[in-house]
Design a protein that fits this description.
The complex is a heterotrimer of chains A (501), B (156) and C (99). Chain A is mostly helical. Chain A has one domain. Chain A has 20 helices and two strands. Chain A has helices spanning 2-5, 16-39, 46-68, 83-109, 114-133, 137-155, 162-193, 198-204, 212-228, 237-244, 247-272, 277-300, 305-321, 331-366, 377-380, 382-396, 402-415, 420-448, 464-482, 485-491, and strands spanning 72-74, 79-81. In chain A, helix 12 (277-300) runs antiparallel to helix 13, helix 12 runs parallel beside helix 18 and helix 14 (331-366) runs antiparallel to helix 17. Chain B is mainly α. Chain B is built from four helices and two strands. Chain B has helices spanning 7-10, 17-50, 81-103, 126-149; strands at 109-112, 118-122. Chain C is elongated and about 50 Å long. The chains are: A mainly alpha (501), B mainly alpha (156), C mainly alpha (99). Chain B binds chain C through residues 4, 6, 9-10, 15, 18-19, 22, 79, 82, 86, 89-90, 92-94, 96-97, 100, 111-114, 119, and chain C through 1-5, 48, 50-53, 55, 59, 62, 65-66, 69-70, 73, 76-77, 80.
Chain lengths: 501, 156, 99
């Protein structure tokens, strides 16, 4: 019994460098909490600046870890810091910074609770950075809840507003229901494989025959994530929540929450289930196809721009799901799928945050997000109109904007395995993109051709922080579109050899 | 294939001794339940046969003493209890993490499988573990300080 | 060790919970149905953990209990807000946003 002899003080070794981004966020959270609790009214103005500085500070350890380049694994492999994790940590932190820029004036000018707003935002971002590293069912679950629970409160932020309250209610109910279903699947998966580590689960279900319970567990897990990424038919909460929630929160949910959902789905599917593609591939294939078609068709008849962006976001979720539907064919197709999904998520974050920044800027003047209220925007605020067109045509996938490169990587990933299912899905992506062009172009037509509905053509004054957010997002959209190799260097397939392949 | 093999447990015939024990203990519960139902049916049945039946509206009041009931039978509780219940539940549940930690703070723990064999011995956490738990409690306390400063703890 | 009885109990609880979420119109009842699903998960995890002589299942269940408390706390706050704004917690009445 040699195990009896080897008893000493037992502490799991912690790699403080690997945990540094999360620790900075926890510290930021504590500082915000104390400043808000003891600073009183005088401290309100400092909240957005503190949050912004803290988020940028958390990027420093991400950069040093990337420079270091060592794969760090903790807690028996439940928490891994590799290039894949670092890319998404950086994405979440930068997206969070842009959301802070979007929120600064919106939250300060509406009579909202500023301290709590930024605390919840940071808590949710903390969950996302944990999600990027989670390689175990328990850590995936904890990260998912840590990012979701603050988001429920943020969606219901305007307490007296019936729309915001409805947004929070629907988001909460669907989110919690989805987590419950996901957990049931996870519990079955744990029971059948005897482990919560994704790698061990993959080892246990390797083989030709798996019991029906494993298939049920995989389906429940995928369906749970489908709610989070708002894939049809589990998307019903998204348009209502996006329209009702405060617009900066909508931007945060549409980009951060959704990207985190995809990261979780991709991690679980490609690490735990790669040996059983027969179970998850048809399901994700059907979800992706239906999501693209239905999302785009409903987006066609929207009159509210935020709602249209919500349905366009649903459709974009379909594009991002598509490469995962063929990821199980071979190691190469898995690597291509990871590359396509990561690339598209980065690009999607930039263009969607940008579009919401314009919506917030225009709403400062018109107080409305109806598409008709954008009439004549080009005549009185040409810069905003041009920015909006850049984002919309990028979402549509028109070269030389970033969205085009995102679509290209998805096509390549779909064609790579050379299966019929992949080709059909590629055709559907193409058709859906053509439909999508109609509604994006319609908004551009309203901005450039139609007259201002109320004849008021005073230019829109864009505050500093919003202008900074627009600059960042336009820059990313243009640079990635013209020089895609910049992004390809960090999202390239060889970056992800540790996962998927 | 490292899958948990639960197939013998899904069929009653191969589950062996313990399974019939299980069924037998539930048989007792079932007999007890049937007896209880029979007793109630007997008492109510006999009662309804032999008692006189003279309905009057006064008999259907909540209090036959003549005090009229006010309001519904489902009264609403003061909503300000909610915030205290919430704070209590959250701190109560967080305490769940302290119990498993406490068993391993300064003594070793033997992991025993279902047949009673020790298969692993875990060492104590020691002072390092103590510091980590104090950090956990400090973060929780931060939440309480926040609630106190925001005047949530005051009875309004 | 008996396993299938626990799994059946959990499956029944899960089904009742899903049914409740889909049919109940009272916000608090929906929250209770979700709790049923989470408890089904906990029963599953602990039964599997005991059957496999593995403590991970119990640890997972502890995390779920703690997270569920926080989650339901937020849920009750949202239902309370609903009640303050509308004097009703019927979630079918929440239908301002459509399209």
């Amino acid at each position: 019994m040699n195990i009896l002899a080897a008893v000493g003080v037992d502490n799991p070794p912690l790699d403080w460098h690997a945990l540094a981004p999360e620790l900075v966020l926890v510290g930021l959270l504590a500082v915000l909490l104390l400043v808000d609790a003891f600073g009183g009214e005088r401290s309100r103005w400092a909240m957005p600046s503190l949050t912004g500085i803290g988020l940028l500070a958390a990027l420093i350890p991400v950069a040093t870890l990337a420079y270091d380049g060592v794969v760090r694994s903790m807690f028996d492999g439940a928490y891994v810091v590799d290039n894949y994790a670092l890319l998404f940590k950086a994405l979440f932190l930068i997206a969070g910074y842009v959301v802070v820029l979007l929120s600064t004036n919106y939250i300060a000018e509406g009579d909202y609770w500023e301290g709590e707003y930024y605390q919840l935002l940071v808590a949710s971002l903390l969950g996302m950075t944990v999600m990027a590293s989670a390689r175990d069912l328990i850590s995936v679950f904890l990260a998912l809840e840590l990012l979701s629970i603050p988001a429920y409160m943020l969606a219901a932020w305007r307490k007296r507003d019936l729309g915001s309250e409805e947004a929070g209610m629907k988001y909460y109910l669907m989110g919690v229901f989805a987590s419950a279903i996901l957990l049931y699947g996870m519990s079955l998966l744990y029971g059948m494989t005897g482990s919560t580590l994704l790698v061990d689960i993959a080892g246990a279900i390797e083989g030709t025959e798996v019991p029906a319970l494993v298939a049920l567990a995989v389906v429940l897990v995928v369906v749970g994530f489908a709610f989070k990424v708002s894939a049809v038919p589990f998307h019903t909460w998204a348009p209502d929540t996006y329209q009702g929630a405060p617009t900066p929160v909508t931007a945060f949910l549409a980009v951060g929450s959704k990207a985190a959902g995809f990261v979780a789905l991709m991690t679980v599917v490609l690490i735990a289930f790669p040996t059983q593609p027969r179970i998850f591939e048809p399901l994700i294939w059907a979800l992706a196809a239906v999501t693209m078609i239905v999302g785009n068709l409903i987006a066609l008849r929207q009159t509210n721009l935020v709602r249209m962006l919500a349905y366009s976001g649903v459709a974009q979720a379909g594009y991002i799901l598509a490469p995962l539907a063929v990821a199980g064919v071979s190691g190469a197709s898995a690597a291509m799928a990871v590359e396509a999904v990561s690339t598209y998520l980065v690009i999607y974050a930039a263009m969607n945050l940008g579009a919401f920044a314009v919506v917030i800027a225009v709403a400062r003047k018109t107080g409305s997000a109806e598409i008709d209220s954008y009439g004549g925007l080009f005549s009185y605020s040409p810069v905003l109109a041009v920015c909006m067109s850049v984002f919309l045509f990028s979402l549509a996938g028109i070269p030389p904007l970033a969205g085009w490169y995102g679509k290209l990587t998805i096509f390549l990933a779909l064609i790579e395995p050379g299966t019929l299912a992949g080709y059909i899905l590629a055709v559907i992506v193409g058709l859906a993109s053509v439909i999508a062009l109609f509604y994006y172009a319609r908004v551009a037509k309203v901005m450039f051709v139609d007259p201002a509905p109320d004849g008021d053509t005073t230019p829109i004054r864009v505050p500093m922080s919003l202008a900074a957010a627009l600059t960042i997002t336009v820059a990313v959209t243009l640079v990635v579109g013209v020089l895609p190799q910049v992004l390809a260097r960090v999202t390239g397939a060889e970056t992800f050899l540790s996962i998927g392949g | 294939m490292l899958l948990t093999d639960i197939s013998p447990l899904l069929s009653a015939t191969t589950a062996g001794e313990s399974y019939s024990d299980f069924v037998r203990s539930y048989l007792t519960v079932a007999i007890f339940g049937l007896l209880a139902l029979g007793m109630v049916a007997l008492l109510l049945g006999v009662g309804s046969i032999i008692r006189p039946n003279r309905p009057q509206p006064g008999k259907y009041l909540t209090y036959e003493s003549g005090v009229d009931p006010v309001g519904e039978a489902w009264p609403q509780t003061q909503v300000r209890y909610y915030i205290f219940a919430l704070l209590f539940v959250i701190f109560d549940v967080e305490a769940v993490f302290i119990f498993p930690w406490a068993t391993r703070l300064d003594s070793e723990t033997a992991l025993v499988d279902s047949s009673g064999n020790v298969f692993e011995i875990l060492g104590p956490y020691g002072s390092y573990g103590l510091v980590k738990m104090l950090l956990f409690i400090a973060v929780l306390a931060l939440g309480l300080v926040y609630a106190w400063r925001k005047k949530v703890l005051r009875w309004m | 060790m008996l396993l299938n009885q626990f799994l059946l109990l959990a499956a029944v609880l899960f089904c009742i919970g899903v049914y409740g979420v889909l049919t109940r119109r009272n916000g608090v009842m929906v929250l209770m149905s979700i709790e049923l699903i989470l408890n089904a998960v906990n029963i599953n995890l602990i039964a599997f953990g005991t059957y496999l002589s593995d403590a991970t299942g119990q640890a997972f269940a502890l995390f779920i209990i703690a997270v569920a408390a926080a989650e339901v706390g937020v849920g009750l706050a949202i239902v309370l807000m609903l009640f303050r704004n509308r004097r009703s917690i019927d979630i079918d009445a929440v239908d301002q946003l459509k399209g």
